[in-house]
Specification:
alpha/beta, binds 5'-O-[(R)-(carboxyoxy)(hydroxy)phosphoryl]adenosine, 10 strands, Nucleotidyltransferase, domain 5, binds zinc ion
């Protein structure tokens, strides 16, 4: 069979990224231009700045991805581009770029769902992973438990009612003065603290066993800090980081295990920025071992936003026959 090469383009948040992927699983190039240093100054992503920076970088990032993969547009079978969910102005840059290339070259366009990209990141390094499996997606914008029934076919069985897991990490990090993005910093500081030091709440939702809520644990951390300050007790930041992380990991692991049991899933995959959290990986590894399940997760570079995962998702959509016209538009709240 002929090899299929996909050019992936991703610009939904604060990473401008392009990648070339062969047959959905073999990464020929993966170029990421991160804007984190810019947004850091404001303590979070500023949408207007993100859009402008994407415009500045996108051509160069695509050129680099093509050069590194040693391909020309003649070799590319389809362009996979994230068209949602995400920041509308940021998404539009990638979508407009992909449409322009498609119009100029005649290469088919495959609009790709960002979350489907995160799930597909697991295919890159785990060559043996095939649906069906249960995927926990934990990123800065999303927290979902999804059954991947077939390639490109998903059933969402749980989601967050308020903050995303990564958002909670970022907010708690800000509260203890760690800066943005806070997830990796909490992860590192947690190693020096005691996860049992402070009993932060584990939210379980009546009648919705696979839904999440992280606003309570975030508020509990803020209350704990206020309480310490009022009483003149020194705040132990490492203990807060460790105890917060343990509370979040506990909930993520126990709900994932319950969902695996309920839906008869034997394979578990992790995806999204928080999937690189060491506490989460360790917690999932122990639980999966205990319950006889296999666990998959991407390397950190494929957990956070990248275009290789978009190209991988686009490959399976392309094989399923998905094609988009030049009327493809950015959809900020796109459903899976
Ligand atoms: O998937 P991603 O790059 O962007 C979205 O699509 O949202 O995820 C970014 C999120 C941020 O909230 C960041 O703090 C979190 O992932 N994150 C982590 C870790 N690395 C990144 N959270 C906890 N532990 C980490 N090691
Ligand atoms: Zn993402």
């Amino acid at each position: 069979e002929k090899d299929i090469l996909i050019l992936g383009i991703e610009s939904s948040c604060d990473e401008t990224a392009a990648a070339v992927v062969k047959n959905g699983r073999e990464v020929l190039s993966n170029v990421i231009s991160s804007q984190i240093d810019l947004h850091k100054l404001y303590g979070g992503v500023v949408p207007e700045i993100a859009s402008r920076k994407h415009i500045e970088k996108i051509n160069q990032v695509i050129e680099e991805a093509m050069e590194e993969a040693k391909v020309t547009f003649e070799d590319i079978d389809a362009i996979g581009v994230t068209y949602g969910p995400g920041l509308v102005g940021a998404l539009l840059v990638g979508v407009a770029e992909a449409k322009a290339i498609s119009y100029a070259t005649g290469i088919p366009l495959v609009g790709t769902h960002h979350i489907e990209g995160h799930v597909s990141a697991n295919y890159i390094e785990n060559k043996e992973l095939e649906p069906p499996f249960l995927c926990l997606i934990v990123s800065g914008g999303h927290t979902h438990l999804v059954i991947v029934k077939e390639y490109g076919k998903y059933e969402i069985i749980g989601r967050t009612r308020d903050d995303a897991a990564g958002e909670a990490f970022d907010k708690v990090a800000r509260a203890i003065g760690l800066g943005y993005p806070g997830g990796p910093k909490i992860d590192a500081l947690a190693k020096e603290g005691d996860g049992k030091a402070i009993a932060f709440p584990r939210a379980h939702i009546e009648g919705a066993p696979f839904d999440f809520s992280f606003s309570g644990v975030k508020s509990a951390v803020l209350n704990h800090i206020n309480h310490c300050e009022m009483k003149g007790i020194e705040v132990n930041r490492a203990d807060i980081a460790a105890s917060f992380q343990e509370a979040v990991v506990d909930v993520l692991v126990s709900k994932t295990m319950a969902a695996a049991k309920e839906y008869g899933m034997t394979k578990i995959a992790l995806a999204g920025g928080v999937a690189s959290n060491k506490g989460l990986r360790r917690g999932m590894e122990l639980a999966c071992k205990k319950h006889g399940l296999s666990l998959f997760y991407p390397s950190p570079i494929y957990c956070t936003d990248n275009a290789a995962m978009i190209a991988s998702a686009a490959y399976y959509e392309y094989k399923n026959g998905t094609r988009h016209g030049l009327d493809l538009n950015a959809i900020p709240n796109l459903k899976i």
